[in-house]
């Protein structure tokens, strides 16, 4: 049952993404940019943390 729920959720997300891209490409591009900025900020924070640990937590 959980596998079917996963497949349905993925299908709904794909359909929504296609709908968004077709109806409003500028808004879709904004969402992608926000997502990549979030990933970039998270990677930078992890890098800063690892640098802090490598420097002895000072």
Provide a quick synopsis of the model.
With 58 residues, the chain is mainly alpha-helical. The chain has two helices and no strands. Helix 1 (2-23) packs across helix 2.
Fold and architecture overview:
Helices cover 90% and strands 0% of the residues. By secondary structure, the protein is mainly α. The longest helix is centred in the last third of the chain and has 30 residues, at 25-54. It starts with a helix and ends with a helix. It is built from two helices and no strands.
Proportion of residues in β-strands: under 5%
**Integer average pLDDT:** 91
Main sheet, how many strands, which sense, barrel? none
Q: Could you give the order of the helices and strands?
A: HH
Coarse shape? elongated
Task: Pick out the low-confidence regions.
Answer: none
Computed CA radius of gyration, to the nearest angstrom: 18 Å
Q: State the end-to-end CA separation.
A: 50 Å
**SS summary, helix count:** 2
Overall number of strands: 0
* SSE-based structural type: mainly alpha
Features:
about 60 residues; mainly alpha
Question: How are the secondary structure elements laid out?
Answer:
Layout: H1 2-23, H2 25-54
Helix pairs in contact: 1-2
């Amino acid at each position: 049952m959980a596998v079917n729920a996963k497949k349905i959720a993925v299908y709904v997300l794909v359909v929504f993404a296609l709908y968004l891209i077709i109806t409003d490409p500028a808004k879709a591009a904004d969402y992608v940019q926000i997502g990549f900025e979030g990933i970039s900020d998270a990677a930078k924070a992890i890098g800063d943390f690892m640098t802090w640990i490598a420097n002895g937590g000072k």
